[in-house]
Design a protein that fits this description.
Layout: E1 4-12, H1 19-28, E2 34-35, E3 48-49, H2 63-67, H3 71-87, E4 99-104, H4 110-124, H5 133-137, H6 141-150, E5 156-159, H7 165-178, E6 184-191, H8 196-204, E7 234-242, H9 243-248, E8 255-264, H10 277-290, E9 299-301, H11 308-322, E10 330-332, H12 335-338, H13 345-359, E11 361-362, E12 387-388, E13 393-400, E14 404-411
Parallel strand pairs: 4-5, 4-6, 9-10, 9-13
Antiparallel strand pairs: 1-7, 1-8, 2-3, 6-7, 8-14, 11-12, 13-14
Length: about 425
């Protein structure tokens, strides 16, 4: 099978609206949490989130076009533009029939749907909806808009698997490329779900932190006093390319995608399997796909959402898979800084892995105050400060409601 490499990246996150800003935020251990500004959250149990800051769509997109797409698609278009520019692709020289887009969103245009319901179904009841309602809200529209913008006529679709969505998009792109079905695939994910419906829904299921008096430190993966995740938004875009194609055009290569796997817990709609069978299986299968031993992984970017059950279950699975190597590698949850970007989480966390390899540092798990007695103290969870380290290979985990598990492995060339 063909080899697959990453030749361009783009990011919009709660701690930086470009890859360079995101990397700086990761190194410094910045918190992206603040009080919600996108709607009046005063009556909600959770009044804060990790919003993207200072983003004005019209500064990046045609004003008319910006109005016709939801915020999650705006994020997708801007992050993709950065990734394509970063890749150095000559759009006039490539065969666009062999360039695809596999993009992810767990929820899609929720704010668009909310607005239409409030203005019409709950207002005067007159069914006079915006003609762009449906194409603005459907989750696959970001993939379609990217292909239309650049004329990419290859594989084109959306993956939707809750919080594992963009990791599944990335591994699908990896598989199509190594099977020779495309030369280049734009992949990643975007989410803009800091909305009334989303916050209210997650609140009702007790999934979100309610630490309103200390919101900047509310995302506390592995801390004994963690009380739920912090909602985030943004996008991550990656240009995946067949290795020989990238070499021929002299592309700069961030890393090679060497292994990926997907499994199911087959247990519960929201809770992890108590024995971690699905997570154990997905990491083992990813390592097998990569032809690597556990000892070759230097850093694991965990799912680590700051939920009581999920954090400990994942670490138990890591100990099971990595054995003696578990205490010699670095582990961290960058969701402590960005919050949980749901369907875009895997994409921005893959980029965090690439930054770790390119700049030889491990992003921290910030906001650690109290040790959890259920967590092995010998594990290096990279608490509170980034750590300088030569990072040659990384593994990224993302898991979604419904029991969807994804692991992707990246390695320096």
């Amino acid at each position: 099978m063909k080899r697959v490499v990453i030749t361009g990246i783009g990011a919009i996150t709660p701690i930086g609206n470009t890859v360079a800003q995101y990397k700086e935020g990761l190194e410094k251990g910045l918190s992206g949490a603040n009080l919600i500004t996108l709607f009046d959250a005063s009556l909600f149990k959770t009044k804060f989130a990790c919003e993207v800051k200072g983003f004005v769509a019209e500064e990046h997109l045609d004003k008319r076009e910006a109005r016709r797409i939801d915020r999650f698609t705006q994020f997708a278009m801007v992050a993709t533009s950065e990734a394509i520019q970063d890749s150095g692709l000559d759009l006039d020289a490539i065969n666009k029939d062999r360039v695809g887009v596999i993009w992810a969103s767990g929820i899609g245009g929720l704010s668009t749907l909310e607005k239409e319901i409030e203005e019409h179904a709950l207002g005067n009841g007159i069914p006079k909806h915006n003609p762009f309602l449906i194409p603005k809200m459907i989750s696959d529209i970001a993939a379609g808009q990217i292909s239309i913008q650049y004329g990419f006529r290859g594989i084109n679709y959306c993956t939707v698997s809750a919080c594992a969505s963009s990791s599944h998009a990335l591994m699908n792109a990896f598989d199509y490329l190594r099977l020779g079905k495309a030369d280049i695939i734009v992949t990643g994910g975007s989410e803009a779900s800091v909305t009334k419906t989303s916050v209210g829904g997650f609140n009702s299921m007790k999934a979100l932190s309610e630490r309103n008096d200390a919101f900047e430190t509310a995302s506390r993966p592995y801390d004994a006093e963690r009380d739920g995740f912090v909602l985030g938004e943004g996008a991550g875009a990656l240009i995946l390319e067949e290795y020989e194609h990238a070499k021929r055009r002299g592309a700069t290569i961030y890393a090679e995608v060497v292994g990926a796997a997907a499994t199911a817990d087959a247990y519960h709609i929201t809770a992890p399997h108590p024995e971690g069978f699905g997570v154990i299986n997905v990491m083992n299968l990813a390592l097998e796909d990569a032809g690597m031993s556990p000892s070759e992984i230097d850093y694991i970017n965990t799912h680590g959402t700051s939920t009581p059950l999920g954090d400990t279950a994942e670490l138990k699975a890591i100990k099971h898979v990595f054995g003696d190597s578990a205490t010699s590698l670095n582990i961290s949850s960058t969701k402590s800084m960005t919050g949980h970007l749901l369907g875009a989480a895997g994409a921005i966390e893959a980029i965090a892995c690439l930054m770790a390899m390119k700049y030889d540092f491990v992003p921290p798990t910030i906001n650690h105050f109290t040790d959890d007695p259920e967590i092995d103290p010998q594990l290096n969870l990279t608490f509170n400060e980034s750590q300088q380290k030569k990072v040659k290979a990384t593994l990224s985990n993302t898991f979604g409601f419904g029991g969807h598990n994804a692991s992707v492995i990246f390695r320096q060339i």
